[in-house]
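Key result, reporting period 2: structure in, sequence out.
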């Protein structure tokens, strides 16, 4: 069947004045308008297209792919506000609609918002929602402690940054585990640091415990090599100085330089760290 809001692989069935009709293996047809028709093609050639509803609520195909597909998250810009809701630029001619009831906070023209794209079963339309938590669930976790996970930065809190985990769960990165600038919509990797009561997930952007020693040690060695074998840092340096220079916590820094010192790769002096050649 043809899936609205998804990329479909369909065959070219016939050519018309308005474009070409594509068909799936169940003989469902959809129009690919002339603007998207390739310069050369043959009947029964296969094309990858995105299918959505046009301005007259008819299924239509496009060889342009949007910034977000059905059942996914993306950071989109609001292009206009109407009496019915907001319209978001998602890279297609017809913009993505976000009703007022699906706005966590009132959207403004020109603003950027993290939204979830889904199929409204009542209208059979693709719509957006910035109330992203309703599409996430921690009741049955699909992750465990120390798993590497995919993250989307969701929204800040007083104690850190909320994140979407594997597009399924919610989690939190505490402030003392953030060593780089994070913005809403950023996509990055993280690790499940701890699962707390109620299936609350604590996330870290670095590896945990002794798992973090090796990569952090490698980072320090690289920084030493890039700075003529010297870094003006030591175990007396403040956490802020270490974060500014290396984007890591003081705890991980001390473990890493301890390892390097035992390996006789560095020499630690009052004025800083020296690379042993």
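The corresponding designed sequence is given below.
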């Amino acid at each position: 069947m043809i899936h609205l809001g998804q990329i479909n692989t369909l065959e070219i069935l016939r050519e018309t004045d308005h474009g070409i009709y594509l068909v799936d293996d169940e003989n469902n047809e959809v129009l690919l308008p002339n603007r998207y028709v390739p310069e050369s093609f043959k009947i029964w050639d296969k094309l990858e297209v995105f299918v959505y509803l046009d301005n007259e609520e008819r299924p239509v195909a496009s060889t342009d792919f949007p910034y977000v597909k059905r059942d996914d998250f993306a950071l989109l810009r609001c292009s206009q506000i109407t009496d019915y809701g907001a319209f978001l630029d998602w890279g297609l001619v017809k913009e993505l609609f976000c009703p007022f009831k699906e706005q966590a906070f009132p959207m403004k023209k020109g603003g950027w918002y993290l939204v979830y794209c889904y199929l409204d079963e009542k209208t059979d339309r693709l719509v957006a929602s910035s109330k992203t938590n309703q599409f996430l669930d921690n009741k049955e976790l699909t992750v465990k402690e120390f798993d590497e996970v995919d993250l989307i930065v969701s929204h800040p809190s007083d104690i850190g940054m909320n994140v979407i985990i594997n597009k399924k769960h919610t989690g939190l990165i505490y402030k003392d585990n953030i060593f780089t600038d994070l913005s809403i919509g950023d996509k990055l990797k993280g690790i499940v640091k701890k699962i707390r009561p109620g299936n609350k997930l604590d996330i870290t952007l670095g590896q945990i415990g002794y798992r973090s020693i090796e990569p952090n040690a490698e980072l320090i060695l690289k920084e030493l090599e890039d700075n003529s074998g010297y870094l003006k840092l030591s175990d007396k340096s403040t956490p802020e100085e270490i974060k500014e220079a290396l984007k890591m916590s003081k705890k991980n820094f001390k473990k890493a330089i301890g390892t390097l010192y035992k390996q006789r790769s560095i020499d630690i002096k009052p004025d800083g760290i020296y690379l042993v050649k």
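The chain has a mean pLDDT of 91. The chain is about 15% helix and 40% strand. This case is discussed further under Risks and Mitigation.
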